Request: fold
Amino acid sequence: MLLLAIESSTGLVQPVREQVEGVASPVYFLAESPYLLAGQARSVFSIQSQLRERNLTLQRHILELTHISQQFVALKAENDRLRQLLGSQGRLPYEVLIAEVVGIVPNTGSFQVIVDKGADAGIQTGQPVLDASGLFGQVITVAPFSSRVLLLTDHNHAVPVQVNRNGVRSIAGGTGLRDRLELENVPVSADILEGDLLETSGLGGRFPTGYPVGVVVSVLVEPTSAYAQVVVKPSAELDRSRHVLVIFEPQVVAP
Amino acid sequence: MNPFTGGWVILMTLLMAMTLAVFRLPDGSPEWLGWFRPSWVLLILFFWAMELPHRIGLIAAWFMGLLMDGLQGEPLGLNGFLLASFTYVTWRFFERLRMYSVLQQCGVVLVLILLAQLVRAGTLYLASNQPFGFAMFGTVLSSTLLWPFIYLLLMRIRTSVRIE
Reply:
């Protein structure tokens, strides 16, 4: 019996795990059902004035976003032109799939969530996951109708990042604490300041470039240490988001 | 007497336990509340293994644990080992355990779940480098305090459905 516990650390039993998870995942849907029902009830019995107010804020939000996206289209065209001039490959748009969080693994030592899309929607292990405000995590196992996402604050998770202001590269590792990432092995001389926005650098090939990861909360330089301790607050709403985006690698089309 | 009567009751209670084990706390509930999640499956399996040792097999307990591993994303076989060894200990002493008062049973539950949590924390530390936390003592405490209620509830279910 201990054999399996040992084997699982070598990664040979991944297919078995996915089968087991496929059998077990309906329990998550069952456990989530009270919340789903409550959500349904709330949407049925909401007051008209509330709805109107919500509608108005959403419309304003859309207006702001369309404004930004108009600029974005122009900027992207310009960027592509410049890239062509430089002779480097243009960036391809990413396909996204919206998934809903149906379960949170109630383990105090690790941060994982279950989402309601799995192998049936074409999800594969290792795909990055975003929410509305930033990087959320990555897919670690895929069952037929659900998959498991490791959050970026889990202490087994790390993501290559760069500072949005000047492109200083580093690696943001999870700490196992809910609202805290730490940059690993930052030299004391690195140009990282409080309030800097960190985005994914795309190095390592797993995460796409340019998605926000977090904001630097504090930079602590200890005289005895060769490294600065940089604490980052993740931008994604890790404990609140109900809907997440699973990113698909762009299909390269032959010209 | 049909030997399979009431098997569905046992299965339903175990399914219930699994659901409670992964039940998400509502948004905005304090984080420390999560540390006091009792190990539902162990408690309910303990009851059935004590009352009906001929109905709960080691293999069944092990597969139950495999499902739990799938649910919680823990190393495969960890919960299987825990549940099966739990069942074995209960088998070994079920006659004595039945004679105990509920409070004495609480003591037994305390020791067993403490051992299970220590093994679990140790394995997780080795397998996925998870740090030891004091959360496991919260689980031990809440499970022990919950045992009398689970015992009385399941006893009532058992006598009313007459599972043999």
User: Anything to note?
Assistant: Residues 48-86 of chain A form the longest helix (39 residues). Chain A has a mean pLDDT of 81.
